[in-house]
Write a structure and sequence with these properties.
The protein is an alpha+beta fold. The strands form 4 sheets. Strands 1-2-3-13-5-15-4 form a 7-stranded mixed beta sheet, covered by helices on one side. Strands 12-6-14 form a 3-stranded antiparallel beta sheet. A 3-stranded antiparallel beta sheet has the order 8-7-11. It is built from 6 helices and 15 strands. 40% of the residues are buried. Bound molecules: succinic acid (SIN). Succinic acid (SIN) binds next to strand 5, strand 14 and strand 15.
């Protein structure tokens, strides 16, 4: 089967046409892997995947990550259902890279659109390599070697597991180097980064605010408009994402898998 790769924006993202993820062959997977490293976010339309097939697709990339806080689909610990539970309870309407408060955050996530509102509920992705490249040389020099503290406190509390935060916190480099491409990327987010190491909260805050803004400037973003059956796979080492909750009480159900990653360096 021949694949076509169609870029979706000037910053990141590509659609892969002509593929059925339930029946992938090795040469196709190699092409998809190359496109993943180049475009950071891949969209596959019209995929009719059962939970087993989504899990099987995820396992082609590596061992699957079981979320330490958020509940999973009954019988499928590898799948986190992301269901509309109201704007005030949305856990994902904030910029983040998945589970960055863990020691080895997932390298990638794959979200399948199971049921969608008739409009709205997009997801925005931001290219953190580009965000880093656009910083001044002075800022890059200052960030070199700096580390930030990531915490799952907010997520644990919002998930009704207030005590879980005690177990989930980790420091990581502010600028991480992609283990496969060697490219540098910003690695802080408003959802999980609480402070910069060896600085007071007051000192950390303005710098983190600046970096968080730079991390999702319009010219580093791609906004995905979902169709039922879309499977979107993104590289958590290269992008942050934000789920737009503009669809009121309308149903939106997504199934997410995450693939284990390594220690950010
Ligand atoms: C997520 O944050 O992992 C899910 C994003 C979404 O529901 O669009």
């Amino acid at each position: 089967m021949s694949l076509e790769t169609k870029p979706l924006s000037g910053s990141l993202g590509a659609e892969i046409l002509g593929v059925d993820l339930a029946q992938l062959e090795a040469p196709e997977f190699r092409q998809i892997r190359e496109a993943f490293l180049e475009h950071h976010v891949l969209a596959f339309r019209d995929q009719k995947l059962t939970p087993e097939q989504q899990i099987e697709f995820g396992r082609l990339w590596g061992e699957l990550f079981i979320h330490p806080i958020v509940p999973h689909l009954p019988d499928y610990p590898e799948i986190v259902p992301i269901v509309n539970s109201g704007k005030s309870k949305s856990l994902t309407e904030i910029w983040h890279s998945d589970v960055s408060f863990s020691a080895k955050p997932p390298m990638a996530s794959g979200l399948l659109a199971v049921s969608l509102p008739s409009y709205g509920g997009d997801t925005i992705f931001a290219n953190q390599h580009k965000a880093y490249d656009l910083l001044s040389e002075g800022m890059k020099t200052m960030l070199d070697g700096m580390r930030a503290i990531h915490s799952g406190t907010g997520l644990a509390s919002a998930s009704g597991k207030r005590d879980a935060w005690k177990e989930h916190g980790q420091d990581h480099p502010v600028v991480r180097t992609h283990p496969e491409t060697g490219r540098k990327a910003l690695y802080v987010s408003p959802a999980f980064t609480v402070a910069l190491e060896d600085m007071t909260l007051e000192e950390s805050r303005p710098l983190l605010e600046y970096l968080n803004e730079a991390g999702h400037a319009p010219d580093v973003c791609y906004r995905h408009r979902w169709q039922t059956g879309d499977l979107v796979l993104w590289d958590n080492r290269s992008v942050q994402h934000y789920a737009v909750h503009d669809h009121g009480k309308a149903e939106r159900t997504m199934h997410r898998i995450t693939i284990m990653g390594d220690t950010p360096r």
